[in-house]
Design goal:
50% helix; alpha/beta; 11 helices
Length: 284
């Protein structure tokens, strides 16, 4: 099933990612509406043509209009929304999301959802250090990976539609992954990197460091400007996988520390050469 332009698309949660979805889809001539938490955000999106209609109130007619619903909510709010309003979906609605954790979260949503509504989870690997629809930008999808995480509850048609959505947004690569494998990998490539950036920004309290730093420090700590509400929830929801990745990082860091202490230049250079070769694979 392709995401044809006769499908009505509803964005629930008009923040940075929800707004960026709306911008990208509207520019591709899709009919897009949104439910947001602030009238200011709705007005911003309307004025710029991201959406054709918007509201801050969840009503049956607004939800039932949609064929496809994209949720851009924090995990716990997503669950609360489904519990409170899923009766408003029309039969056959397909819902998807941008949520950074899957695993038990996906099992919970699929377990509570009506049989005639299908949830196909997805995770666009993109974003900014700022939040809100005022910072929406469809260019964040350029060069981005888009992960679809189907389960045994998903139909082939819904998976195809979700994959198509990733391409329509402009993502560079669309892949499929098991929900538990997703959380293990994301614990490393996303959550651990944020933990490292946070630690770098808080482990040295010397004043005026911004006057002396170079691009290497700025690059490493770009994501330390962090949405504390969202990321703390994601860390806890993926605690087991993240703690395992932190343990492995700590062990590797201690190996490098020992190489420096013992002046084992050969081992250090070999590690650096391996790092250089692996890093080349990530160049866009």
């Amino acid at each position: 099933m392709n995401l044809s332009r006769d499908k009505n698309i509803l964005i629930v949660g008009l923040g940075l990612l929800g707004g960026s979805y709306a911008m990208a889809l509207s520019r591709k001539d899709y009919r897009v509406r949104a439910i947001g938490k602030s009238q200011e955000g709705i007005d911003y999106a309307l004025e710029r043509g991201f959406i054709e209609r918007g509201t801050t109130t969840v009503t049956e007619d607004f939800v039932a209009w949609a064929d496809v619903v994209v949720f851009g909510l924090y995990p716990h709010i997503f669950k609360e929304w489904i519990a409170a309003y899923q009766q408003y979906f029309k039969p056959g609605t397909i819902i998807t999301d941008v949520t950074g954790i899957k695993g038990d979260f996906v099992r919970d949503i699929q377990g509570m959802l009506r049989e005639d509504v299908e949830y196909i989870p997805a995770h666009p690997m993109c974003g900014k250090e700022v939040s809100g629809v005022q910072n929406a930008d469809d260019k964040i999808f350029t060069g981005a990976n888009y992960i679809v995480t189907p389960t045994e509850k998903n139909s082939k048609e819904a998976v195809e539609l979700c994959r198509d959505l990733g391409w329509i947004l402009g993502c560079y690569r669309v892949v499929e992954m098991d929900i538990d494998k997703h959380d293990e990998i994301i614990g490393f490539v996303s959550q651990l990197t944020h933990c490292i950036a946070i630690t770098l920004m808080t482990c040295n309290e010397k004043e005026h460091l911004e006057k002396y730093t170079g691009d290497s420090f700025r690059d490493l700590t770009r994501i330390a400007r962090i949405n504390d509400e969202m990321w703390s929830e994601l860390f806890i929801d993926n605690k087991a996988a993240l703690l395992e990745q932190m343990k492995e990082f700590r062990e590797q860091f201690e190996k490098l520390e020992t190489m420096i202490e013992t002046e084992d230049v050969a081992a250090m250079r070999a590690l650096m050469q391996r790092s250089t070769q692996r890093r080349k694979l990530f160049d866009k």
